[in-house]
Amino acid sequence: MAFGFFLNAVRFFSRRLKRALAPVSIAVTAWGLGSFLQLTHIPLLYLPVWGAGAGAFIASALGLARGRFKKVGRFFARHTAAFGVLGGLLTALYYISSLAGAAWVFYSTAIGSAAAILLLGGDVKRPRAAQLYDDQDVIEAKRLERRFVETGDVSLLTTYVAYYMAKGGVDEGRVLEVVRAALAYKDIEPSPFAPPLVAKLVERWNRRRRLRHLRRVMALLNRYL
Predict the structure, then answer these.
(1) Does pTM surpass 0.85?
(2) Is the pLDDT confidence value at 148 over 70?
(3) What's the rounded mean pLDDT across residues 138-148?
(4) Which residue has the higher pLDDT, 134 or 63?
(5) What per-residue confidence (pLDDT) applies to 144?
(6) C-beta separation of 31 from 23 below 8 A
(7) Residue 92 and residue 75: Cα distance in Å, rounded?
(8) CA 92, CA 106: separation in Å to the nearest integer?
(9) What's the chain look like in SS3?
């Protein structure tokens, strides 16, 4: 199990092996966890774990497809977790239906679940909602706000604030006040040796901090516009 987690961590430090190591780390981790549960002598508990690992491994391996099958590979890569859960459930259902002498339950559920994922799990293109305001300035402002929350680029936010305040005819003193407020933000940087999970948690926390900072700056901006 530890080696499986190690392989998963290596993915975040290796560009060439990042995608190829995904199915390997899933298989090793699931095999290790299932083997450990097997040693506990708890009846059949390890089988759904191995089934979940097999489902996620197959989906992740298919996600490596490129070229003509790029769209297929992208589909399986995005739904690796779903196929993992499906593999675990189907493994458990297979043994339950075998004990009950009702194999048709397993086959019908397997076919129905696979069909549901394949038909409903794709990217749904929703029609564009009617916009109340189609003003280009409003659209551009919303785009810049989203980019700041995603990237934390303070210079982008500062330029945005200065531009719209100058356009609104606000005096220089108030512009400087809001610009200083916009500049008073800095992301929390995780250690380069931090585990991937810690790095993801820090990034999620930074996004929330950016959103709160953006709201404070916007409140101050709206006060003078």
Answers:
(1) no
(2) yes
(3) 75
(4) 63
(5) 78
(6) no
(7) 25
(8) 9
(9) CHHHHHHHHHCCCCCCCCCCHHHHHHHHHHHHHHHHHHHCCCCCCHHHHHHHHHHHHHHHHHCCCCHHHHHHHHHHHHCHHHHHHHHHHHHHHHHHHHHHCCHHHHHHHHHHHHHHHHHHCCCCCCCCCCCCCCCHHHHHHHHHHHHHHHHCCHHHHHHHHHHHHHHCCCCHHHHHHHHHHHHCCCCCCCCCCCCHHHHHHHHHHHHHHHHHHHHHHHHHHHHHC
The encoded tokens of residue 141 equal: 């402002």
Q: What is the dihedral of CA 45, 46, 52, 57, to 10 degrees?
A: 180
Is the distance from CB of 114 to CB of 73 less than 8 angstroms? no
Spatial contact of 20 and 64, defined as CB atoms under 8 Å apart = yes
User: Is the separation of the CB atoms in 55 and 86 below 8 Å?
Assistant: yes
156-187: buried (b, 16+ CB within 10 Å) or exposed (e) per residue? ebbebbbebbeeeebeeeebeebbebbeebeb
Residue 141 has pLDDT above 80, yes or no: no
Q: Give the per-residue pLDDT at 74.
A: 81
Distance of CA 38 to the CA centre of its chain: 32
Question: Has residue 127 got a pLDDT over 70?
Answer: no
